[in-house]
Amino acid sequence: MISRRIPRLICTNKRYYSLKKLTCEEPYPPRVFSGIQPTGSIHLGNYLGAISQWIKLQDQNEDLILSIVDLHSITLPHDPKKLSRNILELTATLLGCGLDPSKVILFQQSMVSAHTELCWCLGCISTMARLAHLPQYKEKSANLKNIPLGLFVYPVLQAADILLYKATHVPVGEDQLQHIQLCQELAKIFNNRFGQTFPMPHTLKISNEYSRIKSLRDPLKKMSKSDPDEKSRICLTDTPDTIVRNIKKAVTDFTSEVTFDPENRPGVSNLISIHSFATGKTVEQICKEAEHLDTGRYKFVAADAIVAYIKPIQESIAQYLDDKGYLLSVLAEGGEKASEIAEVTLKEVHNKLGLRVKYRDSKTHAKSV
What we know:
The chain is mostly helical. It is built from twelve helices and seven strands. Helices cover 48% and strands 8% of the residues. Helix 2 (80-97) packs across helix 11 (295-321), helix 3 (114-123) runs parallel beside helix 12 and helix 9 (266-279) packs across helix 11.
């Protein structure tokens, strides 16, 4: 059995996140909800743009609920065995990065059936026209001959994920802003029709300089798990040789100097940003230290720094993966905690919708079902 308190490596660079203590209007206490799909290995973009922010919130003692949103990951064809494996690997990765299940609620979405039930309730106040206009639906369905219903109602399930826990804040990137706006609309419609039930969730924008780490192969796009080119990203589970290879193959430009200019030199600037996070050095320091290097030789310096930064995280992940029983217990305990909150909300929703009818038993005492 491994320790629940494996040390983690956290960047202490004060330029990273500057989140203030969250506040919210009464009667809803501040609560943060976020989710992550188990669709592949976590890469540096995920880590810098999301997971590190969650750890920051955790260390600020915020009320934080994190879900491995496996139901979202089956909206398109998938391999069931791979999905099961990914769920455990993602759990190990999150713990290895520093998330502490004694401080946050970490659970598997499908273990809490209230998500899909609330999705149905919210779907009944949504319109097809509104959902069809969402950019992500248009993008993902563009090349599909037969569009799955799950892909169409994906944003409604996402809204249910958030509202089920009466979350007041949701960390989001730019590509999810319109889905949060839909969630806000559904909360407002429900409250107006059936009485005050949900808080208005606020976006907690990911606005630090590392929030949009770019693809190594196309620095005009963000780093993505779905990119078919494995050399486009650095995964937390990559071997040192793989990291060096991918950095070496990273697209830069024809200028040999190492300078930071995101607009005109996005490729090399992307490497400098990653290097900066891994070492805590400023981009100015990095450029000064690399002034006698060309970009080709600089890539090896950056790769070595990234390998050194990721190594303790990888060791921690490996320890967790060696104890699958513990990973399952974390998800089970998190599922129980999440269910307790979810069932209270769902009962309230049932009451507001008129679904909890009363009847009289043989002793003529009123009961609700």
